[in-house]
Amino acid sequence: MTLNLTVSPDFAPDHISGWFIFNTWLQRQLGTGVHLELYDCFDAQRQDIKSGKFDLVYANPFDASMLVRELGFKALVRPISKPDETIIATHKDSPLQCVEDLKPGAQLVATDDPDVNRIGMIMLEPADLDQTNTETTTVDSYVIVAKNVLNKNAEVGFFLKDAYDELSDLIKSQMKILVSSEISVVHHTLLLCPKLQKYAPKIQQRLVKMADDEKGRSVLESMNLLGWEVMTEEESEFMIDLIDTLLDE
Amino acid sequence: MPEHDMKDVRDIVINYHDGTSRKATVLDREVPYPEGKLIVSRTDTQGIITHANQAFVEMSGYTEEELIGTNHYILRHPDMPAVAFAGLWETIEAGNKWHGYVKNLRKDGAYYWVKATVIPNIRNGVVVGYTSVRRKPSRSKISESEALYKTLR
What we know:
The structure holds two protein chains of two kinds.
Chain A lengths: L1 E6 L8 H15 L2 E6 L3 H9 L5 E4 L1 H9 L4 E6 L6 E6 L14 E5 L3 H11 L9 E5 L3 H9 L5 E5 H5 L3 H5 L1 E6 L8 E4 L7 H9 L5 H9 L5 E3 L2 H14 L3
Parallel strand pairs in A: 1-2, 1-3, 6-7, 6-8
Antiparallel strand pairs in A: 3-10, 4-10, 4-11, 5-8, 5-9
Helix pairs in contact in A: 1-9, 3-10
Chain B lengths: L8 E7 L5 E7 L11 E5 L5 E4 L1 H7 L3 H4 L14 H12 L4 E8 L5 E13 L2 E10 L3 H14 L1
């Protein structure tokens, strides 16, 4: 048996090799083949997930919702102390001091990361802005989001906080944060497909103990994670209910 | 209490739909919604609070211990028309999502406005409770809601 694994494309490029190291570690732990496939586009990945290509998915919170409610996946673990938070930032010389200073017609730049974009749009609501009265340029990475902000091609950019924190000090010194989310309970999740649920306890156990030995810790470090903790079915349902409240339709 | 608040203080009795009531002090003082935060709570099917996040604790002015086990209506501001909450319950009991702008009453009598969304928590096809998530509303939506609610009281 080979487990097919994919990872939400919103981690920093520096950690790509970390996920391949994790893939090897997981193969050894489970004594079975694990095949990792990475994407640089959320939509393409989502289509392949929906077609049943993957057994194990490290999903962003919005995709986790789809995986559990539509495809019957179950959450196994979540990364410790790593909530998904969103930052809206502008050029340091911008006259904008807060979100409410933005006006209809505002130009935004973002990736196609669904959770960051949804939380970002929610944080623009106090300025009466939504998708109908803003213009969004979608780019491939958070570094390009930052470049567009620095070149003043957009008034503000949406960032995953982790990705913003990993930008170079030079880039960050030329930007200012207008608002940073503090939601705390929305995070990535590792989920297993319905047909392989019998392996859930073993995978869960190995991952939870991963930080207990030096080898495991070094793999985690290469992925910029501290460790994993069990996610119960009710915790996963709670997060999905919460995400559901953030979708307006 | 600061002297400038004294002239805006009202002592009132709030009557709830279940026949209970309580005395409350109401101040004409708005507490700004905290930037970037979501206020999250869960209740059972009767509206009794079973979970409150830190932002809820901070904005409501109650301790977590005071909130858990209490009916969510403890947050209702007397300026809110009863019909707004009747609509909320009708919507969520039918299994649907409810959105609305709500003026909430803090323990200290001050108030804060939120954009609230409430959804039923459905487990194995059964509604086991409700999740309410509040976020920062725009000033224009608050003004529209204030005007509307005055006509409904």
